[in-house]
Amino acid sequence: MSHSNDTIYALSSGSLPAGVAVLRLSGPKALTALGLMTAGDLPPPRKAALKTIRNRNNEELDQALVLQFPAPHSFTGEDCVEIHIHGSRAVAEAVFRELDAISEIRHADAGEFSKRAYDNGKMDLLEVEGLADLLKAETEMQRRLAVEQTSGRLSELYDGWAHRLTRCRALIEAELDFSDEEDVPDSVADKVWNDVSSLYGELDTHLQAGSSSEIVRDGFKVALVGAPNVGKSSLLNALSGRDIAIVTDIAGTTRDVLSVDLNINGYLVTVFDTAGLRDTIDVVELEGVRRAKQTAGQADLVLLLSDIDSAPQQLAELSELPFTFIRTKADLAQPPDDIAKHISVSAETGWGLDCLHQHIASEIEKRVGSSLTLVPGRARHKKRLEETLNYVSDALKSEGMDLAIRSEYLRLAATSLGRITGRVDVEDLLGVIFSEFCIGK
Asked: What is the UniProt remark on how the cofactor binds and its stoichiometry (predicted)?
């Protein structure tokens, strides 16, 4: 990604054609470019105005709403412009040609607007990652998690912890450096460890809550397993509302793992259809069985399916996994006496699917809890928090050692926190993170 002072431009709206296309510019020549295309008549800052967009030959290209956002009060911290043109490819390309003709103006790279906002201190790394997640959000809970991260409250929490660690270090070093001065109380360092111990508890609780964000961000994984022909593929099709899996009366039709994404109560749920579990000598089917067991082992919830009139399959591989018995083909046979103990469904009629949805939602809420407030959202955050927790633990456990060593543990802990927000040497991460963005953001 370029680090030049070029002015950049890109469409920030959806793909063309569209009713309206939003063109964004950022950089030192953004206002100049707008002036050239509107005959120099710029609207007041942050006020929309209808203007005629013209080319170098003074020919009309389009009527557009234009806005200017002078630095530093803009998304990127630079002079910014938005031009809302009609969303045809011809109009957009004509405006692009005019911009390309101006020196030091070029098309933006993916994520370059957000990168400039980060470089100019408008956002920290946590907020940038939250914005990337917000742009990709497909469910209500994903939106909530991303908005929480972009709000800055999580950054404030981590910065607050880092400040507490720095204050503890300052008190320790005051005793080390000025222990002979009358205005420095004796054993000041002893007074900081209660705060460090309290901080350790807060970090530990915060990390334990992180598993809920994984479910929200990456989805709750549900595996359909069972013997051949118990209705796994039919149930997958019924849950998705379309024919995704091939359904036949031939045992072993499903050989590979199929999946579909569902939105259940605002959560992303990925349901996996797997090969029927049975002993076989068929090489391809054997691989399908292996993949089915592997998928079950990685799932958040396993649904063990059996026919309405058959006993549930006994599988040693499921003994350590969270699973629920599901009776299928409820429309074909008289329910057994123990029907109340299990969920029964019919993929043919849809009977029982609402109950299954509620069961999955209930299992998600057990794992996630009632609130997503201030939880680490990515594996990178959790890794750095684990480092911080370990350093704080080392500082607490090293009682009796030189105070300088204990102070160094606290410095390392604060450094790990700083790497989450981008306050400390994260240059190697930036290219990866901003590559997640689309052009124009």
From this structure: Binds 1 potassium ion per subunit.
